[in-house]
């Protein structure tokens, strides 16, 4: 963003200050009128050039500029009626008071607009699409306020004169102050920059945020539901392969390879990779290959029905695993998953699948916990394995034995409890259920193609995804603070306009609205200032503890 639109108003700012001083010391009415005319011309020229450089926003900016000039005009009328030069000086300062806020906003957007390629959708940063519910409502209210604030301010002025017995010149002040407090620009800035800043920060981490609605949804949740695949490496490792029955091991490996190669899931990929590395594979033709709940797979070989899966899969197919229960419990307690191979209803082999944590997965969970989120992992593993996985990640809540069939019940439980949650995962199941979650983060899978999720972190990893979720939470909190602040400014300001109508109050209203606009824009620096304050406080405590002044 260029600073050119603000240059005329910035150059006029010292002149306006000087004009205000001259008005106060001017002795003759002619000199006062000349100074007012010249100052108003400078303000009008700056506003005209500003609007010319922002022709695409002419419809939106024109009511805002007209409101400022209207307030200045009402102040000048008050000065003419009372013969006071203070009102003319206030008119100049009212127009000049908005320049610092505009400058801060322009500087912030210039700094935040420098983003890496792919951080935001292929459009200019200033056209960032904020379609969140808060932003939509604020824009609608602002659009209505643009056209009703003039009748509302004049109606308030008439009411103050009619019902409160105030003179005409005081009523003009009431209208001027009311016009300044009723600022549509404040309403538009409540959510726009907060959401956009979260998207820009996400882009710098390699995470793509779809729009402002994705930021709002993710930041309004407290539960983070991780699909297990999002926290573990793409493929597990096969450990402790052992044949436990009198069977041709070479034939068994070949038959199992042919069966598992039919399914391109993470378990089948890992098993096939192990079988290829452990010896030669003889081509076989296993018929009727299909998945079973558990997870597991089954098919028909020349020697009978072959079944491979976890304990739940074998039990549902009527195959007992009692003879290997002690081994299975020991494997589960170590955080691995026990798998079995059965032929014609009899156990013939066993092995364990060991999952490895993705880099920084535990740090991501810790970051979410510190931010106030409630991370939950769901896995198809059994209770012992799931508990051990949760301990490695630092999770207190783990949903076990929730495979593809159990995912529907998990979502129903969250919905029945009115618990808003963010779904983090990848793959076909994630794409199927992502729309039912309040927010969604695409974390696992190939980093190509268009993501169905609101937040795509496939190129970045768990730590960056956690940082983005924390930024979304900060954005939502900033929006709430902005909403409360703007509402208080408008409501309290309207009350003050009738109770304290003075030229100085008009200048204060303009300065307050300008400062509030800058505050809504500069959420990022304010957030960093809070972080710096916390860091300085921690440093001070550490120094005091080392000096013995404060106990550890």
Largest sheet: 7 strands, mixed
Summed up, the helix count is 21
Tell me the helix content.
Answer: 55-70%
Q: Tell me what portion of residues adopts beta-strand conformation.
A: 5-15%
Q: Could you tell me the radius of gyration in angstroms? A: 34 Å
Q: Strand order, main sheet: write it out.
A: 1-13-12-11-2-9-10
Whole-number mean pLDDT:
79
Question: Low-confidence spans: pLDDT under 50, at least 5 residues?
Answer: 114-126
Taken from the alpha-carbon principal axes, the silhouette is elongated
Number of strands: 13
Structural class: alpha/beta
* CA(first)-CA(last) distance: 49 Å
Describe the secondary-structure layout.
Blueprint: H1 7-25, H2 29-53, H3 58-82, H4 85-96, H5 98-112, H6 133-163, H7 168-181, H8 184-188, H9 192-204, E1 208-209, H10 212-219, E2 223-227, E3 237-243, H11 249-260, H12 266-278, E4 287-292, E5 296-301, E6 304-309, H13 311-316, H14 325-333, E7 337-343, E8 346-354, H15 361-371, E9 374-378, H16 383-393, E10 398-399, H17 407-416, E11 421-425, H18 428-433, E12 439-442, E13 455-456, H19 462-499, H20 503-521, H21 523-547
Parallel strand pairs: 2-9, 2-11, 9-10, 11-12, 12-13
Antiparallel strand pairs: 1-13, 3-8, 4-5, 5-6, 6-7, 7-8
Helix pairs in contact: 1-2, 1-4, 2-3, 2-4, 3-4, 3-6, 3-7, 4-20, 5-20, 6-7, 7-19, 7-20, 9-10, 9-19, 10-19, 11-12, 14-16, 15-19, 19-20
């Amino acid at each position: 963003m260029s600073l050119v639109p603000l240059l005329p108003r910035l150059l006029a700012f010292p002149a306006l200050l000087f004009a205000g001083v001259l008005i106060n010391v001017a002795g003759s009415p002619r000199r006062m009128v000349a100074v007012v005319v010249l100052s108003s011309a400078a303000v009008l020229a700056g506003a005209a050039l500003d609007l010319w450089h922002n022709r695409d926003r002419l419809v939106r900016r024109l009511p805002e500029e007209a409101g400022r000039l209207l307030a200045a005009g009402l102040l000048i009328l008050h000065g003419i009626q009372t013969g006071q030069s203070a009102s003319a000086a206030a008119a100049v300062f009212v127009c000049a008071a908005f320049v610092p806020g505009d400058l801060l906003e322009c500087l912030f957007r210039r700094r935040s607009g420098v983003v890496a390629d792919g951080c935001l959708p292929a459009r200019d940063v200033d056209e960032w699409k904020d379609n969140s519910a808060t932003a939509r409502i604020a824009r609608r209210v602002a659009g209505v306020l643009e056209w009703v604030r003039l009748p509302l301010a004049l109606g308030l002025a008439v009411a103050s004169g009619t019902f409160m017995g105030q003179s005409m010149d005081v009523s003009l002040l009431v209208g001027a102050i009311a016009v300044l407090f009723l600022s549509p620009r404040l309403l538009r800035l409540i959510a726009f920059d907060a959401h956009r800043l979260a998207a820009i920060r996400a882009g710098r981490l390699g995470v793509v945020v779809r729009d402002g609605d994705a930021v709002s949804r993710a930041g309004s949740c407290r539960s983070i539901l991780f699909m297990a695949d999002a926290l573990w490496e793409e493929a597990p490792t096969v450990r402790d392969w052992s044949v436990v029955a009198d069977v041709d091991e070479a034939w068994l490996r070949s038959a199992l390879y042919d069966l598992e190669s039919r399914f391109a899931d993470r378990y089948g990929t890992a098993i096939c990779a192990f079988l290829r590395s452990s010896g030669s594979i003889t081509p076989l033709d296993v018929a009727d290959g299909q998945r079973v709940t558990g997870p597991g797979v089954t098919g028909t070989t020349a020697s009978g029905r072959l079944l491979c899966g976890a304990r739940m899969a074998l039990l549902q197919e009527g195959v007992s695993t009692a003879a290997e229960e002690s081994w299975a419990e020991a494997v589960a307690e170590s955080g691995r998953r026990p798998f079995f191979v059965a032929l014609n209803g009899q156990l013939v082999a066993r092995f364990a699948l060991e999952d490895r944590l993705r880099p920084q997965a535990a740090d991501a969970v810790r970051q979410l916990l510190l931010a106030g989120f409630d991370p939950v992992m769901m896995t198809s593993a059994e209770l012992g394995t799931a508990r051990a996985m949760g301990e490695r990640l630092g999770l207190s809540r783990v949903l076990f034995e929730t495979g593809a069939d159990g995912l529907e019940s998990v979502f129903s439980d969250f919905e029945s409890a009115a618990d808003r949650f963010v779904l983090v995962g990848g793959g076909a199941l994630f794409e199927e259920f992502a729309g039912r979650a309040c927010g969604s983060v695409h974390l696992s899978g190939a980093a190509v193609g268009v993501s169905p999720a609101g937040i795509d972190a496939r190129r970045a990893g768990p730590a960056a995804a956690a940082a983005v979720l924390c930024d979304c939470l900060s954005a939502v909190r900033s929006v709430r603070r902005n909403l409360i602040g703007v509402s208080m400014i408008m409501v309290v300001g309207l009350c003050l306009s009738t109770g304290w109508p003075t030229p100085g109050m008009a200048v204060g209203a303009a300065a307050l609205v300008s400062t509030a606009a800058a505050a809504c824009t500069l959420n990022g620096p304010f957030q960093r200032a809070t972080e710096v304050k916390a860091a300085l406080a921690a440093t001070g405590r550490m120094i005091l503890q080392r000096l013995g002044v404060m106990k550890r």
